[in-house]
Amino acid sequence: MTALIGPTPARAGDDNPETPAEPPKVELVLDVSGSMRARDIDGRSRISVAQQAFNEVVDALPDETQLGIRVLGATYKGDDKKQGCLDTQQIVPVGPVDRTQAKAAVATLRPTGFTPVGLALRSAAQDLGTGSTARRIVLITDGEDTCAPPDPCEVARELAAQGTKLVVDTLGLAPDEKVRRQLLCIAAATGGTYTAAQSADELTGRIKQLVDRARDTYTAAPTVVGGSAECDKAPLLGPGVYTDREAFSEHRWYRVPVRPGQELRASVSVALDRPVNRDYGVLLRATAPDGRELVRGVDAGSGRTDVVSAGLRWSAAEEEAAEEESASPSPTGTVTAQTVCLVVSNSFAPRPGTEATPGMPVELTIDVVAASPAPAGPDLGRGWALLLLLTLAGLVTGLLAGLLTRWWVATWREN
């Protein structure tokens, strides 16, 4: 058996190698404060649009997902701010969903009181509990918190610092700059996303995306990693899922050891959690430490998606001929792995007034597997044989087509 020379790469999830099988857990937090009466979304009130979206999401909910619903500003009708700022309740407990009960609970909501967003977030985190897998909160609101303290952004930072693997995604229903900044801050603190939803279809589609994302990613909460400005100082990574943040038009480097006979597979996704100009792209490249480009994978968007992704594959066998001497086993039975540099680049440009910090959420997936054998290409002899075969096939096809055409013309004239 051979051993690997060089430092041991970090592996995602090393801090918790035995992840128990847990169902994905999501809590929807809905603002039911007085401002939700406004009728400015497709000519309908904000609350009616939110109720319709909730009903459609509940109907489409995957069976394995455990869902809870919490509201804020839904019951207190008075003017006592101290009492109104305590107004948050969980109307559907986190667990397997009774669809009829959940839709009935949402249908009875009427816009009423204050907007204690910070308190609702803290309570929602308690509703979801703790565990080894990621939990998600989806906050839907049309206004900024009117009850601070606690400040919702500070609450989000507090929850993130607890290491509970809690992600808060925010949806804004009003085109208000203060609201946007607050919701962006909440999302950024927990690695979530912010989206402005200004139609019923946008709101419904986005909530469904976020619930589905919870189902797809809850088993592997990404490991936080910090990319470098150059390959030499980049973190050494093993197979796994990692999360980072990248500024506009930035390049972030990572390193992956790949042994002879192995294939590197990598993908990156950048979440557009704030307004950006159209015509952008994400580039993922693999290079050698000396700067030679090995392979690249690029994907571009047009402003219609919330995530832009790119991926690549590269086999160490492609370098084996050039590195045969250094890659061969030594007398001690060791094999030198080649270090591959991965660089994530983006061409995003912020719209006027968009905050540049913190960077946009980046999710990097790395896998190293046994190299797939490339299909054997024909050598020169087989190439000539193939060319001759194709030529004969073309002649036979042409003759048959000519005979059939002449027969058809003769038959047509007789008739």
Can you give a write-up of this model?
- With 415 residues, the chain is of the alpha/beta class.
- It has two domains: 25-217, Rossmann fold (3-Layer(aba) Sandwich); 222-370, Jelly Rolls, CATH 2.60.120.380.
- 30% of the residues lie in helices and 28% in strands.
- The chain contains ten helices and 17 strands.
- It has helices at residues 46-59, 81-84, 99-107, 117-128, 152-161, 177-190, 200-217, 317-320, 324-327, 380-414; strands spanning 3-5, 25-31, 66-72, 88-95, 135-141, 166-172, 194-196, 223-224, 240-246, 251-258, 262-271, 280-287, 293-301, 307-315, 334-336, 338-346, 360-370.
- It has a six-stranded mixed beta sheet with strand order 4-3-2-5-6-7, with helices on both faces. A five-stranded mixed beta sheet has the order 8-9-17-11-14.
- Helix 1 runs parallel beside helix 7 and helix 5 (152-161) packs parallel to helix 6.
- Residues 1-7, 15-20, 324-333 and 374-382 have low confidence and may be disordered.
Average pLDDT number? 80
Q: Whole-number radius of gyration?
A: 28 Å
Catalogue the unreliable spans.
Answer: 1-7, 15-20, 324-333, 374-382
Strand order of the largest sheet: 4-3-2-5-6-7
Number of helices: 10
**What would you call the structural class?**
alpha/beta
The main sheet comes to: 6 strands, mixed
- The name of the CATH superfamily of the largest domain reads von Willebrand factor, type A domain
Name the helix and strand elements from N-terminus to C-terminus, one letter apiece: EEHEHEHHEHEHEHEEEEEEEHHEEEH
How many domain regions?
Answer: 2
The share of residues in helices is 25-40%
Strand content: 25-35%
The global form is globular
